[in-house]
Amino acid sequence: MRLTAFTDVSLRLVMRLAVAGEGELLTTRTAAAMLAVPYTHMAKAVARLAEMGLVETRRGRGGGLLLTEAGRRSSVGAIVRELEGAGDLAGCEDDPPCPLRAACRLRGALAQAREAFYASLDEVTVESLVSPSVRQVLRVLREDGSPA
Ligand code: SF4
C-alpha cells in the first residue's frame, strides 16, 4: 500500500508548519519549493487542509500559512483516513468491474488491513513527528529543497 502523492504532500506541509518559528509564515510557493513538490500540488493540499481546519491561510502582505492548534494535535491516522478516502484498494468497481466482486472475500480483507494501517497511525500525532532532530532538518530547508 502506498500513500497518494496528495496525502504525502499534505503531511510534508503539516510537519514543516509544525516547526515554524514565532511569526514565521511560509507562503504556498515557498513551502512547495522547500518540500520539493510542484506548486499546483501544494496549492491543492493547502486548500484541503484549510477546509479540514488544520491549516490557516492568512492573506495579504505578510500573509502565509499557519498550522492550527487542531492541526498540531491531529493524529496522522485521522489526516490520512480523510485524505485517502474510503475507496477500494483494488479495482473492484473499475470499468470494467472485476467479475469476482459479487463473492470476493479479498475485498473485505483488504479493507480490514487498511483500517489496521490507519489505526496504527492514530497513535501518532503531528506534534510527535517533529522531534528535535527532525525539527532541525525541517527548519533549515532552503527553497530548492536542499538542506542549508
Ligand atoms: S478480486 Fe476481489 S479485491 Fe480484487 S478487484 Fe476483484 S473484487 Fe476487488
TrEMBL record:
This protein's record includes keyword Electron transport: no
Cofactor(s) this protein requires: [2Fe-2S] cluster
GO terms for MF: DNA binding; DNA-binding transcription factor activity
Any one Gene Ontology cellular component term annotated for this protein: cytosol
Keywords, alphabetical: DNA-binding
Transmembrane segments: none
PANTHER family: HTH-TYPE TRANSCRIPTIONAL REPRESSOR NSRR, WINGED HELIX-TURN-HELIX TRANSCRIPTIONAL REGULATOR, RRF2 FAMILY
Protein name from the UniProt record: Rrf2 family nitric oxide-sensitive transcriptional repressor
